[in-house]
Design goal:
The chain is of the alpha/beta class. It contains twelve helices and 16 strands. 33% of the residues lie in helices and 19% in strands. The strands form two sheets. Strands 1-8-2-3-7-4-6-5-9-10-11 form an eleven-stranded mixed beta sheet, sandwiched between helices. The chain has a five-stranded parallel beta sheet with strand order 14-13-15-12-16, sandwiched between helices. A hairpin with a 6-residue loop joins strand 2 (29-31) and strand 3. It is globular and about 60 Å long. The N and C termini lie far apart (51 Å). Bound molecules: adenosine monophosphate and magnesium ion. The site of magnesium ion (MG) has 3 residues, from loops.
Length: 348
C-alpha cells in the first residue's frame, strides 16, 4: 500500500476531507496530537480497530484509546460517567489526560482489547481535533510506532515505522509534550493513575481530592499485574544497552559516565551519552545527545523518544544517560526512561 504524506495544515480542507474519507471507509490515518503521534482508525468499526493492531504488530490484549472532539461524546461511549470524571474532564480536556470508564456495548471488544472498560481522551492539538470533527468518527488511536519502538514525536518517525503499512500520515511537525497521556482509571473506588504523564497525580488530586498510583507502577518485577495492559510490555528499548547513572552529585555522574564510555571505547564498542544541555561539553564521547534542560522538563520529555531513536540510528552498543527525575514531569519521564533501560540503574 502507498502511504500518502500530507501536511496537517488546518486550513487545507482537501487534506482533511481525504483523511476523513479514509477513516470513514475503515482505513488508517496517523496524526499529530500534543503528546505523541497517534495511529487512528474508526473506534466503533471492529475491522478498522483490528487493522491498527496488525499495522503496529501490537498484541490484541493491549487496548486502544478513543479520541473525541466534544465532551458530550463521552456519554455515547461510557456506560456511566462518575462525578469525579466530570470534574477531570472540565479541568483537563482538551488535553493530555486519558480517562477510563465502563464501556457501552457500541464500543467493540477489538477496540478495548476485550475489556469491559474504555479509555477516552480529548486531545488539544488543533489538527487532531479537526480530524475527529471532520471525519465524524471517534478515532481509536494508540501511538503510531511499531510495537516495541519508541513512540513517534515527528511525522518522520511515523514514516520510518509505518510507511507502506497505513493509508495516510498527517505531518503536524514535532509534538509539544513528547510522552504519552496520563491514564487515570475512574471505574474503581479511588482515582488511580495507570500511566504517568504530563498531568501529574498532584494535579488530579487538586481537582478530585484523591489520587493513587497503580501499585504495579511502583513495584516492578514484584509480579503485580498493571491495570493498563500496555504497561506490562517492555516498550521503548533501544537496540543498545541503556543504563541510567544516578547520584545526588552531578560531578560523580559525569565522572562515572566518562569512565564507562572510555572503558567501552577501549573494548571497541560504540557509545552514546544522553545528558542535560548544561553538561553537553563535559562528556568525552563521540555521540553526546542533548536532552534539553531539567529546569524545564518539557524540553526533556519532548526530546526523549527522538534521542532513543537516534541511538539506534548511530548504532550505539552502550548508552549512558543522566537521570531526569526533577519537577512535575520527572516521575513520568523516569517511568519511560527506566523501562527503556530495562531497569539498569547505576548508583554512584
Ligand atoms: P498507546 O496509546 O500506544 O500509548 O496505548 C494505549 C495505552 O492505554 C496502553 O497502555 C493501554 O494498555 C492503555 N489502555 C487503553 N484502554 C485501556 C483500558 N480500558 N483500561 C486500561 N488501560 C487501557
Ligand atoms: Mg504506545
Amino acid at each position: 500500500m502507498e502511504t500518502i504524506l500530507r501536511k496537517a495544515d488546518i486550513n487545507d480542507e482537501e487534506t482533511f476531507a481525504m483523511a476523513g474519507d479514509i477513516l470513514k471507509a475503515g482505513g488508517l490515518v496517523a496524526f499529530p496530537t500534543e503528546t505523541v503521534y497517534g495511529l487512528g482508525g474508526d473506534a466503533l468499526n471492529s475491522e478498522a480497530a483490528g487493522k491498527i493492531y496488525s499495522a503496529k504488530g501490537r498484541p490484541s490484549d493491549n487496548p486502544l484509546i478513543v479520541h473525541i472532539a466534544d465532551t458530550n461524546s463521552v456519554y455515547e461511549l461510557a456506560e456511566y460517567v462518575p462525578e469525579g470524571a466530570k470534574l477531570l474532564m472540565e479541568a483537563f480536556w482538551p488535553g493530555p489526560l486519558t480517562i477510563i470508564f465502563k464501556k457501552k456495548s457500541v464500543v467493540p471488544d477489538t477496540t478495548t482489547g476485550g475489556l469491559n472498560t474504555v479509555a477516552i481522551r480529548m486531545p488539544s492539538h488543533p489538527g487532531a481535533l479537526k480530524l475527529i470533527k471532520d471525519s465524524g468518527v471517534f478515532i481509536a488511536a494508540p501511538s503510531a510506532n511499531l510495537s516495541g519502538r519508541p513512540s513517534p514525536t515527528t511525522a518522520a518517525h511515523v514514516m520510518e515505522d509505518m510507511n507502506g503499512r497505513i493509508d495516510m500520515v498527517l505531518d503536524g511537525g514535532p509534538v509539544g509534550i513528547g510522552i504519552e497521556s496520563t491514564i487515570v482509571d475512574m471505574t474503581g473506588e479511588r482515582p488511580t493513575i495507570l500511566r504517568p504523564g504530563y498531568i501529574s497525580g498532584k494535579m488530579i488530586k487538586d481537582v478530585v481530592g484523591d489520587c493513587i498510583m497503580d501499585p504495579a507502577l511502583e513495584s516492578v518485577g514484584a509480579g503485580i499485574r498493571p491495570k493498563a495492559p500496555g504497561m506490562k510490555y517492555t516498550h521503548y528499548a533501544p537496540k543498545g544497552e541503556l543504563s541510567i547513572v544516578e547520584s545526588d552529585d552531578i560531578e560523580k555522574v559525569i565522572n562515572k559516565i566518562n569512565e564507562l564510555v572510555q572503558e567501552k571505547k577501549e573494548q571497541g564498542f560504540k557509545t552514546a551519552v544522553i545528558c542535560d544541555t548544561e553538561n553537553v561539553a563535559r562528556y568525552n564521547c563521540q555521540h553526546v545527545l542533548d536532552a534539553g534542560s531539567r529546569k524545564n522538563e518539557i524540553t526533556v520529555s519532548a526530546a526523549l523518544y527522538s534521542l532513543l531513536r537516534t541511538c539506534d540510528d548511530i548504532g550505539a552498543d552502550y548508552i549512558y544517560t543522566e537521570s531526569f527525575a526533577e519537577g512535575d514531569m520527572g516521575y513520568a519521564i523516569m517511568n519511560r526512561l527506566i523501562k527503556a533501560a530495562g531497569h539498569r540503574i547505576i548508583e554512584v
